[in-house]
Amino acid sequence: MAMMDNKEFLISHIRNSFLTSDDTGMFEMIIDVDDHEQHRNGLASDSGMESSDNELSHSYDILPDMDFGAHRRRSNTAQRLERMKKQKRNQSKVKNIPWKDTNLQYYAEEKGHLFEKKDLSPLKWSDTSLISRLSEQLDSSASMGENPFIEYAKFDGKASVGVSTKKIDIFLTMVPPEDRPYPMTVVVIATAKIQDLVGLICWQYTIEMREPPLQENTDLYCLHIAEDDGEVDTDFPSLDSKEPVSKFGFTKLALVQKDVPANTNKPSVIVTVNVPHRGFNKFQVESMNIPMREILDKVLKRRKIKVRPGQSYNLEKQVEPGLPVDLDANLSSMDTLEFCLVREHSISGEKVEIDPVASKSGTRLFRQRAVTYDADSLASCDMLEEKDGGKSVFWLTYFGHDYKHHDFEADTDMCNEIVHKMNNILELRLSPVRKDYVAHRDKKLQKKRESFHKS
Q1: Using one digit for the tens of pLDDT, what is the confidence trace for 254-266?
Q2: Looking at the domain covering 147-265, what would its CATH class be?
């Protein structure tokens, strides 16, 4: 019983019994506090008995939940002490600066307005009632009305995540002329159809409050291919409304109202300009008073033809080849709406002019005269040989009293272009000279084949 009356023994026994099983750490902290107080009060003794009891107290009881083969886990108290040490280290880096009033007078004119008071009042008086700015915005947005194309907003690619989209510049033909060169960029999901894209364009057009307002029926609009400057390419029909957007690779399109001609409310005039061996272009003009020079500029721009120094182009009436039109005259004086683009000083369909180039050496005493041949007197135009340095030779066969030819040397590309044009002209005209020459040439080739087989 004497052992049970010994406080030191009881404390040691309790510590040994519960220290390793107390996860909260509260018991250990309490016992430590008691130990420190006992030492301060002189209660602890160095007697052999007490020393033996203390030594026994350091041998912990074996508990079922002890982690054999591993280090003892840190108690919560140790973790809290570590956090407290870290907080003290961080606090030592903080510098507190007390606020001190100063007697110096501050002049805004010298140091500027540093903390000037601003009027941040969100309310204002109106008809003896308070109206917030949010209420004003809601009222103004309600007055705009509902977007009639809201059902097509789901095809907006900017609001879609994880789906394939296409970015297209849309030129708007119904806006004022000064705004037409500036397209409206639309992002549409790739799975949408052309009719869905039309609705999305109308929806975004209305959202951006563009003028004039659109008709609420999307069937009244269609999409056409557009040039970089916004001009509608009328050579091709409008895109099929049932086809998917992913089928087309165009990055620039034009929104056109079906029941109103593009770019004007006046009756339109369609002008056709044929480009030899390269198709044709159709242009929509506002009136018959347009100068022919503007039509020429339109076709050069559409064809992206760069006029090099020394070159010039002109227009001829399709029914009157070889006769250039007056570019300063109006379309109304032409009596036709179909023309042909020609390059001056090039091969025409009626005649061929040959103007020899003067020799650079200057050793010739006589310069060869320029000659002109009617197209009906020409028999053939053929490539002769290709030389080094990108040069080639072709010859032009014509009929005088007999078949003769001229040899020409030029860049290979230029030779191929001339030979191609000449043969097209000869095939279209098919003059008697051309027929006789071809027949004579075919007979000679046939005789060579027969002699070759006999040998």
Answers
A1: 999 986 444 445 5
A2: alpha beta
